[in-house]
Design a protein that fits this description.
With 698 residues, this protein is of the alpha+beta class. 50% of the residues lie in helices and 12% in strands. Strands 8, 9, 10, 11, 12 and 13 form a six-stranded antiparallel sheet that branches. A five-stranded antiparallel sheet has the order 3-4-5-6-7, sandwiched between helices. A two-stranded antiparallel sheet has the order 1-2. The protein is globular. The protein starts with 7 loop residues before the first helix and ends with a strand.
């Protein structure tokens, strides 16, 4: 048994810190989310008022979190150069939930390839491949099991990974290809495979669903690792813009047409997702805490290394079992059987903890004056990230309870779609019945046919390996039960995933060192990126279709020439400066107050110098900067940018600025001057601005 607790003062300080952080998030919440802000404010108020309250002689919340580990003890980063101008950035994590290996508990978790074009400037860098190193090609046995309809169980582990380079989960620079592949396979499934009958249809759809869920679970863990490292470690591995891009792109893989979202909208999408996730956690936190209070149970949130609360435990005091046997119990939102009438708990032989409380039932240390011991038994563990209700992940008395609830969603989906071919959009009776069923179960807090536990299940596997506050025995008990919840035959357990990650990382490093390996692939990817510089949108769509129809055999690439390489450098830098200016506009109504005007003018000058290559978003953001500044030099830089672009969009933005009624007279005069003064012809130059490179005149 484990003993000890954190002092009440530390608990109060932590609560204040979370309240301040939540208030700051509300202040920076995008416009149009008043309802979300009100929800979070109510949660904050309830948490502040109710957390210190006493529940039938017990505190509702337990805090047994020790001091956080140092970042160096949890994560470390490794950078490996790749020939041709790139680097592999790998985040290693110390996983305490696995058996030690030759490298101790350090496991490579996520690797990202950054294409630097061979210089030291970050303006022309581009992130490319993401490798969650635990994501591997399933074994033959796992593939066959994944194709068996209605098989919702693990099929064993993959014994070892191959010596081939591991499969990347996404190419951040070519997400459109992922969209076209999804469309192609969906069409292939509907037109060629489904007509062969229910057995073929059910097995192929089951395999595709399992493969999609397997990929999604590793995307979720990759996102968690990247967020945790950036939050708790020292030197950041990625810039804020890069991190937003990675997060948004990985999250958009869950959407059919998510890969078509433009780079300039990624940060906004990522912020919306974060806001929705915070609201869901706050809602589920308060819902579960209130139900624990009503049922005289102990509520203990589990803390991730960055301080976020993604899961929570419910405990029961063994001393209360004898006095509350006839107590009424309401399982709403808890979805576990009545603990007060369960005779197994009276003679409980499983895991328990002894904690100490003072006369006012506040958690104290064992050595505190008047401390009294209380034996606590864990009842259940919940995930807080789901949009409706807290999701039951572990039931310490009934291991099959969470799995049956998760299976209810899959069984209903597989039966209606794969066997009966029913659709909410094509069958009115099914649509009405499904809508009513979802409404009733959601309102009543019934954990049946709810959203998948995939996200919170994947996060919990990571939490168990990183959280150093959990007792090792409790962590092992949770891990054993958690593996049984998985419905996917393609999944491996944590110990095997750590072994596979180490093997795949070694294979990736070997692949990066071979001239015909990653360097060659990087060169081919750059030539593919150059296609957008030489061909229009329609031609690019045709190239993508040809690639899909030939199963990837045909891929159009440009020839690597110095002129195209210089244009590629300019295109990347233009995208960088445009994104920076959009960030300026998005975060401040008056840019003079928050941002360095010299940095803004530097970006505007670069766009002006390469106006013939700049796109419409550059003109739009330059016009917005003009409206949001009172500095004459910055305003002149905005107008010079629009003038040098000399495109229809730039001209329309100049005209629009002249028609703004509330624009001050000095600004209006400046706009009129640029509209009436003919633009002087001046030679345009393409500067690679790379270390040791020369200017190429056009």
């Amino acid at each position: 048994m484990k003993s000890g607790a954190v002092q009440a003062a530390a608990s109060k300080g932590f609560i204040r810190l979370k309240i301040i952080k939540a208030c700051w998030n509300i202040r920076n919440r995008p416009k149009g989310s008043a309802r979300s802000k009100a929800t979070v404010l109510v949660s904050i108020l309830l948490t502040t008022l109710l957390t210190p309250t006493v529940l039938f002689g017990q505190d509702a919340r337990l805090n047994n979190q020790p001091a956080a580990a140092k970042p160096d003890d949890m994560f470390r980063i490794e950078r490996v150069p790749v020939e041709g101008g790139a680097e592999l950035i790998t985040i290693h994590a110390r996983l305490d939930g696995i058996s030690p290996t030759e490298a101790g508990n350090w496991v490579p978790t996520v690797t990202v390839l950054r294409d630097t074009l061979g210089d030291l400037s970050n303006e022309n860098d581009r992130l490319r491949y993401v490798w969650p190193l635990t994501y591997t090609r399933p074994s033959l046995r796992q593939r066959l099991s994944g194709a068996i309809p209605f098989l919702y169980s693990r099929a064993g582990n993959k014994q070892s990974s191959s010596e081939k380079a591991p499969p990347p989960i996404l190419d951040l620079a070519d997400t459109e290809r992922d969209v076209w592949n999804k469309v192609f396979w969906s069409a292939l499934q509907s037109l060629l495979l489904d007509p062969y009958g229910v057995p073929i249809k059910a097995s192929t759809r089951s395999y595709r669903q399992n493969l999609s869920d397997y990929r999604k679970s590793h995307i979720i863990r990759a996102l968690s690792v990247l967020s945790l490292y950036q939050a708790v470690s020292g030197p950041p591995a990625f810039s804020d813009i890069e991190l937003s891009e990675i997060h948004a792109r990985l999250k958009l893989t869950d959407k059919t047409f998510g890969g078509l979202v433009g780079d300039l909208n990624l940060e906004r999408y990522n912020e919306q997702q974060i806001a929705e996730l915070r609201d869901a956690r706050g809602h589920n936190w308060e819902l579960l805490r209130q139900r624990a209070e009503a049922e005289s149970l102990f509520f203990e949130p589990l803390q991730m290394p960055d301080g976020t609360m993604t899961h929570a435990l419910l405990w029961i005091a063994k001393s209360d079992l004898a006095t509350n046997q006839s107590r009424h119990y309401d399982s709403r939102f808890l979805n576990i059987s009545n603990p007060w009438s369960d005779k197994r708990l009276i003679d409980w032989q499983g895991y328990s903890e002894t904690r100490f409380f003072d006369s006012e039932n506040r958690p104290v240390s064992q050595d505190a004056a008047g401390a009294r011991a209380m034996e606590l038994i864990p009842l259940a563990l919940y995930g807080l990230d789901n949009p409706k209700i807290p999701m039951l992940l572990v039931d310490f008395r009934d291991g099959s309870n969470p799995k049956k609830r998760e299976m209810s969603r899959r069984v209903l989906h597989d039966l209606t779609r794969n066997v009966l071919s029913a659709s909410q959009f094509g069958d009115l009776p099914y649509f009405v019945g499904r809508t009513v069923f979802d409404f009733v179960t959601g309102r009543r807090g019934m954990d049946v046919n709810q959203p998948s536990r995939l996200r919170t299940y994947s996060q919990l596997k990571l939490l168990l390996s990183l959280n150093q506050s959990l007792d090792p025995e409790l962590r092992d008990r949770i891990g054993e039960r958690l593996e049984k919840v998985s419905l996917n035959p393609l999944e491996n357990d944590l110990q095997v995933e750590a072994k596979v990650a180490a093997e795949q990382y070694a294979a990736l490093l070997a692949y990066a060192k071979r001239p015909d390996g990653l360097p060659l692939k990087l060169s081919r990817d750059r030539r593919l990126e150059m296609v957008a510089l030489e061909h229009g949108r329609k031609e690019q769509v045709l190239f993508n279709i040809a690639n899909i129809l030939t199963f990837g055999k045909y891929t159009h690439r440009e020839k690597a020439e110095p002129e195209l390489e210089a244009r590629l450098d300019v295109a990347r830098r233009l995208a960088y400066h445009t994104r920076f200016l959009q960030e300026v506009v998005r975060t401040s109504p008056q840019v003079d107050v928050v941002w360095d005007l010299e940095e803004i003018k530097r970006s505007l000058r670069y766009i002006a110098d390469h106006g013939s290559n700049a796109a419409s978003p550059s003109a739009i953001v330059a016009a917005k900067i003009f409206v949001r500044t009172q500095d004459n030099d910055t305003r002149r830089s905005c107008l010079e940018t629009l003038s040098h672009m000399n495109t229809p969009k730039a001209k329309s933005e100049l005209l629009r600025l002249s028609q703004i009624k509330d624009l001050d007279q000095a600004g209006r005069d400046l706009v009129v001057l640029f509209l009436t003064t003919p633009r002087q012809s001046e030679p345009m130059s393409v500067s690679s601005e790379k270390s040791g490179s020369t200017r190429v005149d056009q």
